[in-house]
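dude i think i finally got it to work??
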Amino acid sequence: METSNAHYQKLERMYLSAPVNTEIYNGITIEVSDEKAQLTLKVQDKFFHAAHAIHGSVYFKMLDDAAFFAVNSIVKDVFVYTVSFNIQLLRPVSNGLIKAVGEVKFKSKNLFIADAILYDEKGRAVGRGSGNFMKSKIELTEEIGYK
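look at this
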């Protein structure tokens, strides 16, 4: 049986090897632990909308990914998927580092709920989200970067 730490490290490698993270969000970091995940990203101009702050899609990605990996930290056989996700954008961000922290809030056989908060470099909450996740039929294998 695989240790939890080995599982977390495989999830981290899987995440970092995804094309969206190597090509668009290069430099993103992730740390997975029991029922939690934390991501950090340096704000870049390429993430800005016309008013020179990060686009809501970046908030969504960071919040969803943090909540998702918090859930997948306790699901060790298959990839989970997001069923629904609600976000609140609290304040604009134009520079520095952003950090998303996700945590499992509910778990059952097939349904998981996780919340995430996005912080700016000063530690202020700039966004928050809550999602519902379910197990997929996609096994965690090397083919999807779980190695």
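The chain has one domain: 4-144.
im so relieved honestly
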